[in-house]
Amino acid sequence: MNRAAVKLACLDSLVGFASVKRYDPVKELVFWFADLCGGPGGFTEYLLWRKHSWWREKVHGWGITLKSGQDFEFNRFHHETMPTKCFKPYYGADGTGDLYKEENIKDFARVVKGGTKGDGVDLVTADGGFDVRGREQYQEILLKQLILCQVVTMFMTLRKDGDFVLKLFDIFTPFTGGIVWILYRHFEKICIIKPLSSRPANSERYIICQKLRESNPEAMISYLLKVNRKFNEIKSNESTLSPTTTSSSSLNRLLTQDRESTNSSRSTKLPKEDINEIIDISEIKKDQEFLNYIKQKNIEIAKNQIGTIKQLLKFVENPEMRLPQEEYKKLCLQEWRLPPSEEGSYKSVY
């Protein structure tokens, strides 16, 4: 089972989003989901496996991911998932799976809405990311357009009362804070969790959003698509091929600013024009409860990250130190309801 599948199993054991049960218009028990930027398919593998092997329930999913080296790898899925029967990969209008392109977002939403009789799916997962080795300090900035595109795709495909799982990293910039604030305002509940199976020394975390208040919120969708068009315009003007920098905007207008900056680790010049925020920061500051929660989670995850790095250094300095890893693994997989292999040891992940 894929490493990402184990992360989703951990999150599901805490929140229970995969246990959703609802009936379609012909009274069949069915669970619909969409998997965004999820190649090679760990989240899809887990959801299909859980529904088929645990609850024996009807399930169908749709996914969009880059078609090149990050495509879904059905040949590596657990044999009980039956992906060719219960999952439809789709790559958008141009066949690339690139969610930066508005036509691909809209085309994927059209396919999902058509497949769910116009209702939308019960769950959207978004696990997008790319290699930032050598630029880890800029990870939050580098990923912001991808996060934005996953959020707007979610709004166009998720049903009312549906759930959303989104991978984030640091939440320090006004842009990321604005994304989280938008989710906070559109769902009944949100929580930020770093699963135990996530690499403890990095800043990865997931935001779990439960019960979408309104399906297809047109004004927000229109606004987020406008921001994405501005991202693409900036990249076109700067002749860059990938999102590599900061950004700036507000809810009622897109603001841009000139800046000279250099990525010291790769000597890559950041674009002069950028989008730094998507929600007026003064609006967010009015909600002290929200600010306190974000601050608390940032401190909590940062402290754990620092503690883990210190612990790892101890093991580097003293290779003879040992932890009962097999026992820890056994306890975790029991808690996450993942089975042992036939040989008695727990299944490895790729």
From TrEMBL:
One of its GO terms (biological process) is mRNA modification. It is found in: Nucleus. One of its GO terms (cellular component) is cytoplasm. It catalyses: a 5'-end (N(7)-methyl 5'-triphosphoguanosine)-ribonucleoside in mRNA + S-adenosyl-L-methionine = a 5'-end (N(7)-methyl 5'-triphosphoguanosine)-(2'-O-methyl-ribonucleoside) in mRNA + S-adenosyl-L-homocysteine + H(+). One of its GO terms (molecular function) is nucleic acid binding. InterPro entries: mRNA_Cap_2O-Ribose_MeTrfase (IPR050851), RNA_MeTrfase_FtsJ_dom (IPR002877), RrmJ-type_MeTrfase (IPR025816), SAM-dependent_MTases_sf (IPR029063). Its EC number is 2.1.1.57. Residues 1-213 form the RrmJ-type SAM-dependent 2'-O-MTase domain. Residues 238-255 have a biased composition (Low complexity). It comes from the Eukaryota. S-adenosyl-L-methionine-dependent methyltransferase that mediates RNA cap1 2'-O-ribose methylation to the 5'-cap structure of RNAs. Methylates the ribose of the first nucleotide of a m(7)GpppG-capped mRNA to produce m(7)GpppNmp (cap1). This is Cap-specific mRNA (nucleoside-2'-O-)-methyltransferase 1. It comes from Rhizophagus irregularis (strain DAOM 181602 / DAOM 197198 / MUCL 43194) (Arbuscular mycorrhizal fungus). The lineage of its organism: Eukaryota, Fungi, Fungi incertae sedis, Mucoromycota, Glomeromycotina.
